[in-house]
Input
Amino acid sequence: MIDPTMFGDFPKADPVPRGCGEREPGGVYAESGLSPWGRPLEEFLIDPPLPLPDGLDLVNKPQVWQRVLPSGEPALDEQGQPIYDLLIWIGAEFYPYCPDYLEEVRRYGASRRLNPNLDLSLLSRASRMILAHPRVINTLWHEQEPPQRCGKHVPGHALLPIEEAEMDEEAGDEDEWEQEEEALPAPASQSTPANVRALHTGPCLFKTWELIPQEAAETTITLDGEERLLCLRAIGSTTYQYRPTGEEASGLMPGLFAALPLTGFALIRFADGSVNERAKEKILAGMEAHGAAAAPFYESDR
Amino acid sequence: MTQTFSRVLTADVQAREQSDALLLKRLGVESLPAHETLYVALERLIIPGVQMIERQAKQLVKSIERVGILQAPAVMLVQGSDIHDPDATFEVIAGRRRVLAARLAGLEVIKCEAYQASTSQLASLITLIENEQRSSAWVKEVEALRKLIDERVGMTLDDLATFGFHRAQLSERLKIAQLPVPLVERVLAGEISRETARKLIRLTRAQQEQIAGLAAQGEDITVDVVKHALRAQIDAGFVPMQAQLAQAWSIAPPPSPALSPVPARAAPANMPPENDHAVPQAASALMQLIADLRRFEQSDEYRTVPAAVRSLTTALSQQVQVCLRTPPSSSSTPQELKGVNP
Output
């Protein structure tokens, strides 16, 4: 019999109100928690975002899916057991823009409610939460400006590599008065150097921040020496910034955008202190089966 | 194809009679009680659980306004000497949505199958029979849509939706009707279940043609055959993602000029090796935020915003700077997720 406490402290998601609301009593949540020993969120992002496989019916139906290697063989964990992933749809009704969700994860970790009927015993710490959003693949990328930055440094995605973009901004402060003389923004086709355009690849996930319309912001701020507005958008407990370009966002299509590590489960208590026992049994069965690689769980009031 | 349809219809009726007889036997009832088709005033009909079906009933109103109720609901006498009693009242036991929709459409009288007997067992039985009958109704819808396609009737889903059809359901039926002919024939012959048909329409056309080839050779198209094909198709669709993730996790990120000021940290033994690019990325994002906050504090707009906003900005700016100064080993860095072995 496995001891559920053997895993000690493990990364957990913050139980804050989220874009999709607060966690509900009796709910079972898959988590990708935060940790001081973790890796940057960018490492788990899929950039460019990829189309959903044909025939995958994912909308509002989280699924457990056996991972298969490109060779067609089942992927196995260190103990030789098949790895199962969670496929999850992030709905636009709660997260109209993909960055809404990513910024929330960046601050508080990921927490997604699961159908307790899923076979949770198949999931382990080798599992990933594979996320899809209805508006994440920018099909108009080749007609638009490259994003200011690409957090994954994909060659050709961004106007400038991130470090250069930052250095360029800092340098810009010094000759501010010179820029003011040519304050009128250049048309998109002229504002990007030809050699950058020629190398432009895509679509870049990080462009989705720039495609959020200004109207979606809670606060807009005009900064001296900046052509673009600084916009602050609030969703759930998250407030984040973006700089809209005003470009067309109608080209955004559904796609896969992240594969987060599953760090554990949260079982939210009912008012009487109990949890969803059926789900707990499955998680415990998974702990028996996966041993040290099992996904741990905890019980919480929220 | 037309010949197949008529053969299917006959087979369908026979199958239905057999299933009804089986159902009666299972429930220990010899035969159905006497009933009569009557026109009954809607005010004499009691609809149990109205609140639960209101939304669905509203979807039927349009079609009932246009073409009436095509299948008479079943009602059972609850008060009165017999079903012909002018003061008799009836409870609806099958077709509650239709009756409610008729009421919402403003009809006064509808045609019903009125049952004299009044036992709860009978009510349950008739409800079950109706459901049993309706379970094959989807095949008829597919058949009807296929006819519309074959006869090149230029109707769109929007046209059909104006009759009050459930759009998603209709779209599904239409996709089934558009499957390759050998598969549609199997559907109409009742040899492919609804569950299997739903999976078939998720396959690409090429996959459907492949399975249609098997059907044409006389092979059974079981749910397992279709599931296997669908699974393989989806797995193939995940290959680019698996490849991208494997590549991302096997290549170290490029060095960053922001690396040096941030102290290195030691990870616990049970944690994967730390990616030393993590800290500079978090730090550079924080520095960017501070720079933005400072510019805001220097802007004209800043002087016009409420004092609370100015305070908030200052507090935020200071807090971020504190975070930047704090050695990462003593506090959680919010930009990081715990790593896994890819």
The radius of gyration of chain B is 33 Å. Chain B is about 60% helix and 10% strand. Chain B has three domains: 32-134, 137-224, 257-334. Residues 1-9, 252-277, 329-336, 338-342 of chain B have pLDDT under 50 and may be disordered.
